[in-house]
Amino acid sequence: MSAIQRVILRRLRNAVITIFGIITLNFFLINVMGNPLDLINRAPNISPTIRTDTCIRLGLCGPDGQQLDLSQRFISYLKDFFTGNMGTSFYWKGTPVIDVILPALGWTLLLIGTSTVITILIGMVVGALSAQMRGRPFDIAATGLGLFFYGMPFFWLALIMQLSFTRPQFGLNWWPVFPSSQEYDFSIAVFSWTKVSNLLSALYHLILPATTLALGTVAGVALVMRNSLIDVMTEDYVVTARAKGLPSRLILRRHVLPNGLPPMVTLIALDMAFIFGGAYQVEYVFSYRGIGWVTITAINAFDFPVLQFVVVLGGIAVVIANFVADLILLKIDPRIKVA
Amino acid sequence: MAYPSSSVVYWFRRRFGISEVRREKLVLTMTRFREISSAVVHHRMGGIGVAILAFFVTMALVAPLLPLPYWDASLFPSFQDPSWAHPFGTDQNGRDILARVVWGSRVSLLVGFLASVIAGVLGTLVGLVAGFWTGWRDEVLMRINDILLSLPWLALLIVLAQILGGQLSLSVIILTIGLTSWNFTARVVRAQVLSVKERVFVERARASGASGITILRKHIFPNVFPLVFANTILTVAVAILSESTLAFLGKVQVGTLSWGVILHEAEASSAIINGHWAWIVMPGLSLVTVILGFSLLGYALDEILNPKLRER
Lengths: 339, 312
Hints:
The structure holds 2 protein chains of 2 kinds. By secondary structure, chain A is an all-alpha fold. Helices cover 73% and strands 0% of the residues of chain A. In chain A, helix 7 crosses helix 8 (196-233) and helix 7 crosses helix 11. By secondary structure, chain B is an all-alpha fold. Chain B has a single domain (43-311), classed as MetI-like fold (Orthogonal Bundle). Chain B is 73% helix and 0% strand. Chain B contains 13 helices and no strands. Classes of the chains: A mainly alpha, B mainly alpha. At the A-B interface, helix 1, helix 6, helix 7, helix 11 and helix 12 of A face helix 5, helix 6, helix 10, helix 11 and helix 12 of B.
């Protein structure tokens, strides 16, 4: 077994441990939040049969009607999880969790995907230009603006976007107030991806949230890109290249970018958790019914099965993103020595 | 130096008094502190950050002295637009929004400071242990770190806050944010410990028979501390952001007054549809400016204290 393979195996083992940890922690966190059965027991006149039935249906009692303790529930939770049985939602009247999540997941992926592409493109270009013009007005302006947007809460940015683009008294009445929320027009009863008018409506509703999310995340990418490039630009071999009289464009392409880009891969993978968090807030403000909106609804309604699945899903997505980033890094970074 | 006759004073001096060695150390620390603070003020970004923070901290401290009634009473007509009497307008209960923004700075800053102290201490401990005793301790701590880093932080925050107390009082919020935001400090400290550990003076201390704890305390911690400090400043910004997000989502105990709460009330009262722009812009702008202040200060400190960056 080569050293590279050993590293990959170790990373894989860590990823598996982390995912298992997420699954475990998730179960205990959410079960400590409270027992839904207490709410049922609060009703004085409820008949024992109904109580038992509900208890069994919620997975809190065994088939014999006896209440399960935490360890038994944990085992059945693991069993269900690995057989793909995510249970049914408490809030959405017995809809299977998968059916609550999947449509929302599509919308979130659309939102996050669009904004991430915008972010990466703009962020890298601005970061590279800043590094190139270090200390000049463009760099100072970009860094200052970057820091300003970097610390901006997503929800406030979303509110400001709504305020500036949907109100006639502030000039830009491009989106009437209500269609600025939701993921497509109210008039569409059943959304279909094959109808052009539906697609256009979805796109129209996507612009504002996606721009908001991109504005909130682009600064981080640009700042890290700038710092990473500056790090490389002060290395001796770049100074040598400059001294040899190589044109700066060539230096950038040959010497700076290959060494300066790898950290960006890690950053973008690490940023996934942050972007998810941002998407939650943006979706909440724009009533964009993606994962974030579902999560916040689930939290408010104590909808444990949905909540469990959403949290695990987010966690696993980030772990996988990091693992893939590690693999890419091993491939592209000339400096990684196998430790 | 003659000690006073009173034995209590004598004992006190012996116990807590400043010996020559300590005095010298203190002078050194003070000089270094003065150097760093002057470097921060003269650093372009750091200076702006310090100015911003000075403004807001002063605002939070003097709020009780200003004639700004913020409490829950219909003092004025509701939903007024900005005017000379109410520069930011009034809210749904007829309270002056300017007064609420000024008073809100107290909670936002308090949560930021206390939560980041918790996070800083936790992160430093974890980082020191993981970096110094590599092996199973490192593995366990870093896996925990990975798990916390990959869970969706907002969901984690809300769920944890829900567990620690259904009604989110201020202390619960501070604890929750503190317990969830130590990851980055831990990582940075661990990396630094790993490199400091290999330096000659640590080897020398080990050779002369110092125990692990002593080496950590006397040799490694002082070398890591500046980094912890810069990182904690950055954590303050994160903590303030987290608090305002929780508050905006309406997860904070009724009656708490922070910038996030004001924004929550604005959203709940459809401030956007009704065009009450100042109600949304002003608290948010304060939030963003304070966070900017901490970020600027943190970056400046990092640049001044981090040897690798300093060389550039």
